[in-house]
Structure formats: structure tokens, C-alpha cells
Amino acid sequence: ADFGFERVSLAEKQGRVDDVFRSVAKRYDLMNDLMSGGLHRAWKSHLIGMLRPGRNRPFRHLDVAGGTGDIAFRVLEAGGPDTDVTVLDINEAMLRVGQERAGTRFSGQIEFVTGNAESLPLPSNTFDAYTIAFGIRNVPRIDVALKEAFRVLKPGGRFLCLEFSRVDLPILEKIYDAYSFHVIPRIGARVAGDKESYKYLVESIRKFPSPGRFAAMIEEAGFSRVTHRVLSGGIVAIHSGWKV
Ligand code: SAM
Question: To which protein family does this belong (predicted)?
Fold first, then answer.
């Protein structure tokens, strides 16, 4: 069923998002691989390649909507001994999976924090970089989350967002539509036992602003030198901005 997000309150929308990720947390990583055919790994690596955490200098990183830790682990692998990452997510079930995956690796360099992207429980001017991967489209007030990103970054800090976008080739669009409306909810039903959550996923992608509009929102939050690039024919986009 359509979640009818236009008709529900912001709190209710967040509540439904939370239900989705609580229900899929344990199978989230497997689902990501199945649904993207492993492509999410390449997209995430691309994001880290743009970030280039220094190996020989302190680097404080914040990964918001960090879920099961995929981005955080990659930042720590690419960075040096003075890199540390805060993984923030609103959903404790997702963070618990992340903590289990981290085990004793990166001890002292990774911290898991429960919190909301719209009101980060973190001090201003603290981080060298802020990432959010496949997270911002779940946040009810994107403009508020962007302002929070700007607040917690140090001057000179980098904002990077990886998110689903709009496929720009008509032939690819047809395949993508068929895949997302028919195949994804079925895989969701079979593997996670949760078809509705994956229908929600597809709907939320459709409702997300175009790359140009999203870039304008990032500028409105205060960021400079805002750019974006699309990957895989527009299936995803990476937006970048700087706090100067
Ligand atoms: N970044 C991870 C990745 O790329 O694999 C996880 C992405 S997952 C699709 C979306 C995550 O956003 C979920 O873990 C969910 O709990 C989190 N989330 C949703 N609303 C949020 C909010 N308002 N603040 C922080 N995290 C939120």
C-alpha cells in the first residue's frame, strides 16, 4: 500500500521509516547486495575516493544515517591511525548490527551514536567531513538536516551525500522502473519477509528532489562550491559541498 506520506505528520513519517529499518536490520547488508547486484559497494568506494581521508593527519569524520557501518569501515580502512569516525543513526537496531560487524576492529577509532540527522547531539565546528549515504531521503525535513550538517562541520569541512537519483537514459529508465516496482518488493518479501518496506523504499526514491534541485538545497543550507556527479546512468548521484 502507498504510505501516503503527504497526509501523515513528520513524526509519523519518521516512525514509519524507523519501523522499516528495525524490521530489516539483520538482513540489511544481504538485501543491499541482492538488490543492487553488489553495485552499492562500487558506489560507496567512489564516495570514499572523493573524500580521501588523510593517512598522516588527524581526520574526524561523521557518517550520518550510518546504519550498519559500511561507510565508516571504508573511511577507517582508507584513513590513518589518526582517523576517527562517529556513526550516527536514529535506529539502534541498525547500529547494533554495525557494532557487531566492527567487533574489535578499529577499537578506539569508531563510535556509534543514536541520534536524529535533524538535531545532531554533537557540538558545532567539530568534523572534517560529513557523509550521508542512502539516508537523506528518509529524513522528513531535508533542509533541517542540511543545516545541521553545516553546523557540525569545521570551516573547510566537506559534505558528501550519496543517494539514489534519476535514471537519465530512456531505455535504462524502463528497465529500472520494471526492476524497482516488480523485482525489489519481491526480493524484499522473499528475503526480509517484508514487501511493504521495500515498496516504501522505491516510493521514497521517486519522491526525492532532482539532482539540480537538491544541489540548490545544499547551497541554501550555507555550503559553497556545490557540485554533483551521477553514477551508473543516474541510478545514484553524489553531491559535494564545502563549508568555507
Ligand atoms: N548509510 C548506510 C548504507 O549506506 O548502507 C545505511 C543506509 S539505510 C538505507 C538508511 C538509514 O537511515 C537507516 O539506518 C535509518 O535508520 C537511518 N535514518 C532514517 N531516518 C534518520 C534520521 N532522521 N536521522 C538519522 N538516521 C536516520
Answer: Belongs to the class I-like SAM-binding methyltransferase superfamily. MenG/UbiE family.
